[in-house]
Amino acid sequence: MSSQNDIICESCGKIYITVDEKWCRPCVINNLEKNFTNWTSGNEKIDNFIQKMQSKIESTGDIIVEWIPYNQFNNVKKTNKDGFATAIWKDGLLKYNIKEGKHERRTNTEVTLKFLNNSQYVISDLLNEAKAYSIKVDEYNIPKIYGISQNPDTNDYIIVLDNSFCKECSEIYIIYKWCKPCQINNLELNLTNWTSGNKKIDEFIQEMQLKIEGSYNIIVEWIPYNQFNNVKKTNKDG
Predict the structure, then answer these.
(1) 111 and 207 both lie in a single domain
(2) Which top-level group of life is the source organism from (predicted)?
(3) d(CA 158, CA 84)
(4) Which of 22, 91, 126, 162 makes a 20 to 30 Å CA pair with 217?
(5) Which helix (H) or strand (E) holds 146?
C-alpha cells in the first residue's frame, strides 16, 4: 500500500499525476515557464505558440515542443521530396526518465525537417501547419512535432518532426518504417520482370499486389513451378 510520501510531490505538495512514475505536472509546467526567458525564436507569435504547446503536456509520454536553433542539426540530408530533409538533433528530445525522476535529453535524436518556403512572411501559415501535428505518442499515424527552427541562410522556418516519414519519398509511414507508396512503386517497377504467360492472370496478380495495406499483408506472386521441392500428393484429389 502506498504511503502519503509516495503519492505527494515533495516540491509542491500536490498529488502526482502518475504515482508510479512520480511525475508532477504542476512542477514540470512551472519549470518550463521559468525557462521561457532563456530562449526565444525572435518572433512573439512563435514564442507564444511554443509556450502554449508546452503547457498542454499531460503525461510523461507527451512531447515538450521547443525552439530549436538550426546549429543543433547535424547530417542534414534532403529527401526525394521537395521541402523535406532528415537530420540529427544534437542535444535531442526531452524525455522523462522514470528511474531518475526527471526530464533528460535523448542526444542525437533522428528528426525530419519540413522547410516552409517564405514562411517568415506569413507566420499564421506556419503555426496552422504546426498545429496539424501531435505531441501525443499514442496518436498513431499522426507525425509528432518536436519543435520549430529557422534556416539562417534563407530565414525560412522549419517544423521539426519525428522520423515517421519515409526517407525515400517523405510520405508518412502507414506502419512503423513501412511506406505504402514506396512498396507499391517497387512492385510496379517489377511488373516487367515476370509473367504467367496469361494476360488475365497477370492482371489479377498485379491487382492483388496493389491491395496491400501493411507489412503484415501477403504479396501475391506468380510462382514458377520449378520453385517447388518435395511435391507430395495428399489424400484429397487435386
Answers:
(1) no
(2) Eukaryota
(3) 9
(4) 162
(5) strand 145-150
- Indicate whether this model's pTM tops 0.85: no
Q: Under a CB-based contact definition with an 8 Å cutoff, are residues 60 and 139 in contact?
A: no
Residue 74: inside a domain, yes or no? yes
The residue assigned the cell 498542454 is 56
Residue 97 shares a structural domain with residue 197? no
Same-domain check for residues 19 and 74? yes
To which residue does cell 507499391 refer?
A: 184
* 189 & 151 share domain: no
- One-letter amino acid identity for 134? S
pLDDT in tens, 27-71: 889 989 999 999 999 999 999 999 999 999 998 889 999 999 999
At 102, list the grid cell: 526527471
What number of other Cβ atoms are within 10 A of residue 212's Cβ? Answer: 18
CA distance between the termini of the chain: 66
Alpha helices (runs of H) in 59-198, residue ranges in sequence order: 123-130, 180-189
